[in-house]
């Protein structure tokens, strides 16, 4: 809906045209299931960060910049989860013919979610990079690599945020789709964001691997340690 140009494929109310399925309209609402998943993620994410800070405080190393970056990631992620809870109240999980106000309130929630999402991803990546710096900072090559990748992450974040904020002109055409204006191709926007995101993730996962393989330990321990660092792929 957000990618439609004004005047194309719309009716008198401004709602894009769509064909109802033949026969009785399907019923059902996945909102409760979506809510359950969001609350589960809120509990799991919050618990993991609380345990991290507790463990770090109990250790001799104490809390460092990577911990604060992960805390910032949690705060941003909680904002996303609560936006999904709001979106359920405005149409998420329902059939389009059951959504009130032509879905405009839902689209407002979706727009806010699209703005928060790349920020949460960028903060998480920077948190991992800072962790590498804390653990392997004595390795000059890795320190340089961390700085370069961090700069790429920040550049990716700025580019995606600008494209997301300005994907529709005027901006409120994203949810007010009967308004005159135009929007970017949403599929191209998502692909342009996701492909570099995946490439950056792979690079971040591989950064510490050469150092881990050089450690003086048994092969089985090396494989186990490398596997632990690769768990971030999940």
Automatic annotation (TrEMBL):
Keywords: Membrane, Transmembrane, Transmembrane helix. InterPro entries: Rhodopsin_dom_fungi, SAT4-like. The keyword Metal-binding does not apply. Residues 51-233 form the Rhodopsin domain. The chain crosses the membrane at residues 36-55, 67-90, 110-132, 144-166, 186-207. The keyword Disulfide bond does not apply. It comes from the Eukaryota. It is found in: Membrane. Pfam families: Fung_rhodopsin. Residues 1-22 are annotated as: Disordered. It is a multi-pass membrane protein. Belongs to the SAT4 family. This is Rhodopsin domain-containing protein. It comes from Zasmidium cellare (Wine cellar mold).
């Amino acid at each position: 809906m957000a990618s439609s140009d004004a005047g194309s494929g719309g009716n008198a109310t401004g709602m894009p045209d769509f064909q109802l399925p033949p026969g009785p309209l399907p019923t059902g609402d996945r909102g409760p299931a979506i809510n359950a998943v969001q609350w589960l993620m809120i509990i799991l994410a919050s618990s993991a960060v609380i345990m991290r800070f507790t463990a770090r405080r109990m250790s001799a190393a104490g809390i460092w910049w990577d911990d604060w970056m992960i805390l910032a990631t949690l705060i941003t992620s909680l904002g996303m989860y609560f936006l999904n809870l709001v979106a359920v109240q405005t149409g998420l999980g329902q059939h389009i013919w059951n959504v009130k106000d032509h879905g405009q309130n839902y689209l407002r929630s979706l727009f806010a979610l699209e703005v928060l999402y790349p920020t949460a991803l960028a903060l998480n990546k920077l948190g991992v990079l800072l962790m590498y710096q804390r653990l392997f900072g004595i390795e000059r090559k890795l320190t340089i690599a961390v700085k370069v990748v961090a700069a790429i992450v920040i550049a990716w974040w700025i580019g995606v945020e600008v494209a997301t904020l300005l994907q529709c002109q005027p901006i409120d055409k994203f949810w007010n789709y009967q308004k005159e204006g135009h929007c970017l191709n949403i599929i191209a926007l998502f692909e342009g964001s996701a492909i570099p995101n995946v490439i950056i993730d792979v690079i971040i996962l591989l950064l510490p691997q050469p150092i881990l393989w050089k450690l003086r330990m048994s092969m089985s321990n090396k494989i186990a340690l490398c596997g632990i660092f690769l768990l971030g792929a999940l």
